[in-house]
Amino acid sequence: MKLNRWIYVAIGVVMLLFAGLVYAWSVLSLPIGAYFTDWSKAQLSLTFTICMMSFCVGCMAGGMVAGKLKVRFHVWISGGLFLTGFLLASQAGSPGMLYLGYGGFCGFASGFVYNAVLSTMSAWFPDKQGLISGILLMGFGISSFLVGKVYQAVTPSGEGIEAWRNSFLGFGIVLAAVFALCGLFFAKPSKEDLKAQNVILPEKKRVRGEGLDIDARQMVARPSFWIFFLWTIAVGGAGMALISQASGIAKEVGPEVEAGMIATIVGLISIFNGLGRVFFGNLFDKKGRKITMTVVGLCFGLSSVILIGAVAWKAFALVAVGFICCGFSYGGLNPSISAYVNDSYGASHYPVNFSVMNLNLLAASFGGTIAGMLFDASGSYMTTLFYMAASGMVSLVFTMGIRRI
């Protein structure tokens, strides 16, 4: 007998909470950068770029084996990959080993379990696609704040200090244990399970007079897919730039601010990103795709302008406001992707269609690397913030261009 579907939500949130720690790179990398003083910002940022690209590949792999492998095995495989990745990263003596461990194995593991959780919960909640995506992704979003605080507390930083190695190894062990346990209690529903829990299946959505329930090949042939895909790259690339450089932005504005406070301020991005995911997921259910995407683009662009003012005027309080606003608006991206794919292209092929849409990360992940290169070239994060503001405005162009075709 299956558990109540809301218990599966709680288990899913726990798994994504731990899987989302890969987004804490901005904080995790600080002791590494202090230890390897000859590594550039661009080299460290490339780790996060590779991680996001591997996340994308892992998500695709998860979609391809969906239905062929029980969900619990998805979860257990991810736990083993996380353990391997953090073990390798903890032994890093060169950027290459960091790229392989954290960037490759951990990124792939995160994407693999991400697809499994979202696909499973999409099946349990056909009546609340946007809301349930937002709740689950809230766990994924606030992960970096919680991880960042724990990491900061147990990992002293400085030249010659390598406590980060033990912290990375600890992460691997904890994730493997949590995923081993959660996998025992995670399963997809049958139609009988949904009926037993009084789930009312929504009427089949109609798109310009035709009911869509199409596979990935048909999906990518539609102009609407590509325009939405470009929107995700614009918003995602800007978000990656912020996440990868947030600690540096805060330190540039407040060089005298203590490391603990920096971690707290950076953590605001995660907290409000998580809240934004619930808000925008619910907004998608109630108001639809166009309004949700428009609000996301406008808010992200204007939030970047706040951070530009913070850097220009050296106003640390504005950094906090900017991080809150950027995190909240960036939170609209992932639930919009999940809900849009199911809403526009149907549930039958959701695992693969969802992973195809997440290929946007192959391009968006370079937002962090671009931000690192911009800093290396200019010596200031102001150029990164201009890039973020422009991306938010460009996303509005794509929003207006989408049609149900």
Short description:
With 405 residues, this protein is mainly alpha-helical. It has helices spanning 5-19, 25-35, 41-65, 71-90, 95-124, 129-154, 163-182, 191-196, 216-219, 223-253, 259-287, 289-313, 316-330, 333-345, 350-357, 361-364, 366-378, 382-401.
Radius of gyration: 20 Å
In whole angstroms, the N-to-C terminal distance is 42 Å
- Which structural class is indicated by helix and strand composition? mainly alpha
pLDDT < 50 runs, ≥5 residues: 204-211
Strand content: under 5%
Tally of helical runs: 18
Helical fraction:
over 70%
Mean pLDDT across the residues is 87
Strand runs, count: 0
Provide the succession of SSEs. HHHHHHHHHHHHHHHHHH
Coarse shape: globular
Q: What is this structure's SSE topology?
A:
Elements lengths: L4 H15 L5 H11 L5 H25 L5 H20 L4 H30 L4 H26 L8 H20 L8 H6 L19 H4 L3 H31 L5 H29 L1 H25 L2 H15 L2 H13 L4 H8 L3 H4 L1 H13 L3 H20 L4
Helix pairs in contact: 1-5, 1-6, 1-7, 2-10, 3-5, 3-15, 3-17, 4-5, 4-7, 5-6, 5-15, 6-11, 6-14, 10-11, 10-12, 10-13, 10-17, 10-18, 11-12, 11-13, 11-14, 12-13, 12-18, 14-15, 17-18
Describe the structure.
By secondary structure, the protein is mainly α. Helix content is 78%, strand content 0%. The chain contains 18 helices and no strands. The chain has helices spanning 5-19, 25-35, 41-65, 71-90, 95-124, 129-154, 163-182, 191-196, 216-219, 223-253, 259-287, 289-313, 316-330, 333-345, 350-357, 361-364, 366-378, 382-401. Helix 1 packs antiparallel against helix 5 (95-124) and helix 6 packs antiparallel against helix 14. The relative contact order is 0.16. Residues 204-211 have low confidence and may be disordered.
